[in-house]
Design goal:
38% of the residues lie in helices and 22% in strands. It is of the alpha/beta class. The longest helix is centred in the N-terminal third of the chain and has 19 residues, at 28-46. It starts with a helix and ends in a 5-residue tail after the last strand. The site of S-adenosylmethionine has 21 residues, from helix 1 and helix 3.
Length: 263
C-alpha cells in the first residue's frame, strides 16, 4: 500500500457534503439516508460502552465524529489528509461542536497517552497492510481500558480476501475470517458483526451493470424492462446473488474488546 498515494487521494477527494466522505453514493440524499442508518446502528452498538471519550482513527471529514460528539464528552479525530481535517474543522464550527480535537497525522505515527472508552475506525483498515494493521492494533491496545469497545466499519468480503483495484488507490477487502484472525492474534475478541445498512444498494446496481445509482432514479422502470429481467432472472434467483446484493454484506460494523487477561 502506498500511503502517500492514499493521502493524496483523500486530500483531493473532498465532497461538498461532508456526509459523503465515506463511500460511493453519488446522490446527496442517499448519502444522508445511509449515514443516518449507520449512525443509528452505531449508537445501538455503542450503547453498552461508557460515554466518556471516543477516538476516531482515519476520521475523514468527520461525519461519524460530528454525529457521535453529541454523546461523548471528548472526541479525538485523526486523519492524515489535511483537507479532510480542514472540512471537519469548518463543519464543527458551523454546527457549533466544540468537543472534537481534530489532528492531522498519519495514524501509524500517532502517539497517544490517553485511554478511550471507544476506538472507532471506518473505512481505514482496507488501507493497512497486515504489518500496519498490527501496529494500529498495538496503538489501540495502549489506549484501551478494560471495557473499551473497538468498532471497525469495513468492507468485509464474502469470499476470500482480495485486493480491490477499482478505486484509484486500491484497497484490501479482507474476508471476515482473516480479519477476525488478525484481531484475535492481538488479543481482541469479537463481540459481533452488524451490517452497516440493509437497503438495496449500489452493489445491486453494479451487478446489474449500472455504474451510477442515479440512473435507476432517472429511469425507475428500468428494472422492469423485459430484456433485463430475462437476462438477469437466473442470476437473481441464486441465493448468493441475493446475499451479495440485497443484504449488502460489504460494509460491516464489527465490535471488539480486549481479552480480560490482556490487562
Ligand atoms: C474511506 S475514508 C473514511 C472516512 C471516514 N472514516 C468515514 O467513514 O467517512 C478513509 C480515510 O482514512 C484516512 N486514512 C487512511 N490511512 C490513513 C493513515 N495511515 N493515517 C491517517 N488517516 C488515514 C484517509 O485519509 C481517509 O480520510
Amino acid at each position: 500500500m502506498n500511503r502517500e498515494e492514499i493521502k493524496s487521494f483523500w486530500n483531493n477527494n473532498i465532497f461538498p457534503n461532508y456526509l459523503q466522505s465515506g463511500g460511493p453514493p453519488t446522490l446527496e440524499l442517499l448519502s444522508k439516508i445511509r449515514h443516518r442508518v449507520e449512525i443509528a446502528r452505531l449508537q445501538k452498538i455503542l450503547s453498552s460502552a461508557p460515554k466518556g471519550s471516543l477516538l476516531d482513527l482515519g476520521c475523514g471529514s468527520g461525519r461519524n465524529s460530528l454525529d457521535l460528539a453529541k454523546y461523548y464528552k471528548k472526541v479525538v479525530a485523526v486523519d492524515f489528509a489535511k483537507n479532510q481535517i480542514k472540512q471537519l474543522k469548518s463543519e464543527s464550527s458551523i454546527q457549533g461542536v466544540r468537543n472534537i480535537t481534530a489532528i492531522c497525522m498519519d495514524i501509524l505515527k500517532l502517539k497517544l497517552h490517553d485511554k478511550f472508552d471507544v476506538v472507532f475506525l471506518s473505512g481505514v483498515t482496507q488501507y493497512l497492510s497486515v504489518a500496519d494493521l498490527s501496529k494500529i492494533l498495538n496503538l489501540i491496545r495502549k489506549c484501551s481500558k478494560k471495557n473499551t469497545l473497538v468498532v471497525s466499519r469495513d468492507t468485509l468480503n464474502l469470499g476470500p480476501t482480495c485486493f480491490n483495484k477499482s478505486s484509484k488507490v486500491g484497497a484490501i477487502y479482507r474476508s471476515r475470517e482473516s480479519f477476525t484472525l488478525l484481531l484475535n492474534k492481538k488479543g481482541f475478541i469479537n463481540k459481533g458483526f452488524v451490517s452497516a445498512y440493509f437497503f438495496i444498494y449500489d452493489s445491486f446496481f453494479k451487478r446489474l451493470g449500472l455504474k451510477r445509482l442515479p440512473d435507476i432514479f432517472l429511469r425507475p422502470l428500468l428494472l422492469l424492462e423485459p430484456i433485463l429481467i430475462r437476462f438477469y432472472l437466473p442470476i437473481i434467483k441464486t441465493r448468493k446473488f441475493l446475499l451479495k446484493t440485497t443484504f449488502n454484506p460489504y460494509h460491516t460494523f464489527s465490535t471488539w474488546q480486549l481479552r480480560p487477561h490482556s490487562f
